[in-house]
Amino acid sequence: MKFITKSRSPVTVMLVAILALTACDLAAASAVVNEVELSPSNEEAPMWVELYNPGDAVVDVTGWAITIKDQSWAGKMHLQGILEPKGFMVAEGQTSWIKSSNGTVILTDGSGNTVDSTPLLHDTKANDFSCGRIPDGKDTDTKGDFVYTMGTKGRPNGGSIKIG
Ligand SMILES: [Ca+2]
Ligand SMILES: [Ca+2]
């Protein structure tokens, strides 16, 4: 389409470049809290939070943090590393944290901006079940995004359910 290239003004080219840059920025922030274990089967085991990158761009989470909040306490996990496209990452809490079986999980970037947050999650039994998005990355900002089922730490959620 040679005639289109010829008619493109410098302003148009610049606008396209800016739009492309914006798209990259949006993709770079693509990460969700994908699975949460608030009540591990083993009393000595830590709580953990799994992140998932549903996008097509690498996400550098260095400087980011995950906070688990309940009414009476909050625990913060500091992150570092790279989250690959369609990749998973697990952050573990302190074993001393009170396993109160409820929590809201918030993912923040290096500037403290919220990247993702969950509804209040419940995990009342100390077992290997956890709260996870099924399928991975499902994010409609409702409680229905999360299903209480067998944990899949660092792996796709839903066990044998075909993802995608
Ligand atoms: Ca559990
Ligand atoms: Ca998982």
CATH topology: Immunoglobulin-like
Structural class: alpha+beta
Overall mean confidence score, pLDDT:
85
Oligomeric category:
single chain
Q: What is the share of helical residues?
A: 10-25%
The succession of helices and strands, N to C, reads HHEEEEEEEEEEEE
CATH structural architecture: Sandwich
pLDDT < 50 stretches: 23-28
Describe this structure as you would to a colleague.
The protein is of the alpha+beta class. The chain has 2 helices and 12 strands; from the N terminus they run ααββββββββββββ. It has helices at 2-7, 10-28, and strands at 32-37, 48-52, 59-60, 65-69, 74-78, 82-83, 88-92, 102-108, 114-117, 121-122, 129-133, 146-150. A hairpin with a 4-residue loop joins strand 4 (65-69) and strand 5 (74-78). The longest helix has 19 residues, at 10-28. The chain is globular, with a radius of gyration of 19 Å. Mean pLDDT is 85; it is low at 23-28. Residues 34-35, 50, 132, 152, 155, 157 line the site of one calcium ion (CA).
Describe the secondary structure blueprint for this structure:
Elements: H1 2-7, H2 10-28, E1 32-37, E2 48-52, E3 59-60, E4 65-69, E5 74-78, E6 82-83, E7 88-92, E8 102-108, E9 114-117, E10 121-122, E11 129-133, E12 146-150
Antiparallel strand pairs: 1-2, 1-11, 2-7, 3-6, 4-5, 4-8, 8-9, 8-10, 11-12
Short description:
This protein is of the alpha+beta class. The protein contains 2 helices and 12 strands, in the order H-H-E-E-E-E-E-E-E-E-E-E-E-E. It has helices spanning 2-7, 10-28; strands at 32-37, 48-52, 59-60, 65-69, 74-78, 82-83, 88-92, 102-108, 114-117, 121-122, 129-133, 146-150.
